[in-house]
TrEMBL record:
Protein name, UniProt field: Cation transporter
Localisation: Membrane
Entry's transmembrane regions: 12-31, 37-57, 78-106, 118-137, 158-180, 186-204
InterPro entries, per the entry: Cation_efflux_TM (IPR058533), Cation_efflux_TMD_sf (IPR027469)
Length: 300
């Protein structure tokens, strides 16, 4: 199975899973009016919509056109950028909304008791589904040497979704054992805010990391990916042997595409230049054993 086929298979499973998870979250939110569940449900629906886009991107990013003769691989990190921004905005908006509700209770004494009856079985189911999807996508990305920016974004998104569901479930469980007449009774009115605040604090790092990594890929910053860089250097060291240290190797990753640009440090070294010309096809053939979409360029 090719790298693109693995990626597409992963995205189709994610699309189906995210649709049912998001739909369930919105239904329970409508019944309970718990904003943390709105965060949970909308997060999954964003994931569902984005995976539909991801399926298209995955199937078309490698295609070459007159406008993009080297392919449209930039769409893959662009997807990661847009999805991470949408996730961060969702976290901020939900936190602001629950903060307003908590302010109304503490300052004006306005609020209503949180409905908890349906939440616990829902969150248990969602944790199982979300973490299951997360591990599935992680395994699929490992199968293709962690090359897919799209699957990496999906996997981290699944784990965030599962974390949100787990946080809501634990908090609701605590509410069931805290009497409303006790000193902590205010949580029956404001737990939504505290749950959301904790979830945001634990969740914001993942989309921020995806945003940073995707931006670096989009701008074609040299990659430091530990699953990619050592493999490529080993291939060059094997072929060039004593000349290896006379090469300056730059490795770029944009989605599933790997671009290797090699600069010869001593342009007057005619033997090395001749060796580079002769070895280029062999090096490319070896690299294609690990990377489906890879190009090699020498600069003399």
């Amino acid at each position: 199975m090719t790298q693109k086929q693995v990626e597409r298979q992963s995205l189709i499973v994610s699309t189906i899973g995210n649709f049912f998870i998001g739909l369930a979250g919105l239904i329970i939110y409508i019944v309970t009016d718990l904003n943390a569940l709105l965060l949970d449900g909308v997060f999954s629906l964003i994931a569902f919509i984005s995976t539909l886009a991801a399926v298209f991107i995955s199937g078309n990013s490698h295609r070459k056109t007159e406008t993009f003769p080297n392919g449209m691989y930039f769409l893959e990190p662009l997807y990661g950028i847009l999805k991470s921004i949408a996730t961060l905005m969702l976290l901020i908006i939900t936190l602001l909304e629950t903060s307003a509700a908590a302010y109304a209770f503490f300052i004006h004494g306005e609020g209503h008791v949180i409905e908890t009856n349906l939440v616990l079985p829902y969150t248990i189911s969602m944790v199982i589904l979300c973490f299951g999807l997360g591990f599935y996508n992680r395994q699929k990305n490992r199968q293709i040497n962690h090359l897919s920016t799209i699957i990496a974004a999906e996997s981290k998104g699944n784990f965030i979704d599962g974390l949100i569901s787990a946080g809501v479930g634990i908090s609701i469980l605590l509410l069931k054992i805290i009497p409303i007449e006790s000193a902590l009774g205010f949580l029956h009115y404001t737990a939504d805010f505290f749950i959301t605040l904790i979830l945001v604090l634990f969740s914001y790092k993942e989309p921020l990391t995806i945003l940073t990594d995707s931006f670096k890929e989009f701008t074609q910053s040299p990659t430091r990916n530990r699953q990619i860089v050592p493999v490529i250097h080993d291939v060059f060291q094997t072929h060039f042997n004593k000349y290896y240290h006379d090469l300056d190797i730059f490795i770029y990753k944009q989605g599933t595409h790997i671009s290797v640009r090699v600069h010869i440090l001593d342009p007057a070294n005619l033997d090395l230049i001749s060796e580079s010309v002769n070895l280029k096809s062999l090096i490319l053939e070896d690299l294609q054993n690990s990377f489906e979409f890879v190009t090699v360029e020498f600069a003399f």
